């Protein structure tokens, strides 16, 4: 009896059956666990709160959002949520050859681009876009394409109450054939410039009502009293870049001073001012309690007579020789009226740390040194730092 039990215990067939049974059982367990794992890894996106779904969709590009809208009716409805459409960028697409200011194209390509612009505007308006960013480059004085009317209508059809960033070149259409319009006389050019800034002021006035929370702005500026008054309505501005409007358009010193005084949150200011020859000798005051970064390196003929910038940390300024030939007596009489930039910085910018990419030494307000003197030679118009018969 004991021997039989021992033989049964070591019977290979019995052992094989037992092993197969155990393996089968183990396999079933593993299969069921894998199925369970698959079930657990399935993410129930549709069960998320709507706000979470919208947050996830906000990372998609505009094309990807349009593609996602084709997945199902629920996603199609979500893709029409206004806060998913935050950017209106009319300066993209259609670029063939990049120029200095715009993009060169054939007349046919220009017509195709115009069609895209209107379709893009309709696409955003139909979704009730709630914009944070608006970028556009249209000649608002163009009476044929009527870009001014187009922009006004577009702003009426979308939500701009949360608009934070505006980049608007209202003097040039982003994509336009060079031979679209024949050359004009000076009188016609002056009339066109008048049409441009009149349309700009109308558009700008509307933005003061619809987009008071703008914090970043880049645009050409005509520096008229009315435009400056409108600009001071944007009390949340922290970054402002103003480019020149027309080479013959001057800037009044009092106007510049009024603007910088009236923007309490301004941190960054970039000015491109071309002082006309007729205003040679005019100098400008600049005052701001909040300004930390000032860049006037793209300006021409801009000379300061007073600086009150107690928070300024970085300054960029470049002296431009315009080739104006004066006799020595006239030049000296003119330059002696200009205050040395170094004296202005010592009294008006106590926290200045960087001057034209040069990090200042701690002793700079009390003692000049070689590197600082070299920077001043490149930036100051006073008679001490400009020893030339050209201005």
Automatic annotation (TrEMBL):
For this chain's UniProt record, which GO biological process terms are given? Answer: protein polyubiquitination; SCF-dependent proteasomal ubiquitin-dependent protein catabolic process
Q: Under the GO molecular function aspect, what terms does this record hold?
A: aminopeptidase activity
Residue ranges with Basic and acidic residues bias: 1-12
Q: List where Polar residues composition bias occurs.
A: 13-32
**Which cellular component, as a GO term, is one annotated location?**
SCF ubiquitin ligase complex
Source domain of life: Eukaryota
One Pfam family named in its UniProt record:
F-box-like
Residue segments, region Disordered: 1-32
- Identify the residues that the record assigns to the F-box domain, covering every copy: 46-86
Keywords, A to Z, come to: Aminopeptidase, Hydrolase, Protease
Q: Which PANTHER family match?
A: F-BOX ONLY PROTEIN 4 (PTHR16008), SI:DKEY-12E7.1 (PTHR16008:SF6)
Name of the molecule in the record: Methionine aminopeptidase
Species per Swiss-Prot/TrEMBL record: Pelobates cultripes (Western spadefoot toad)
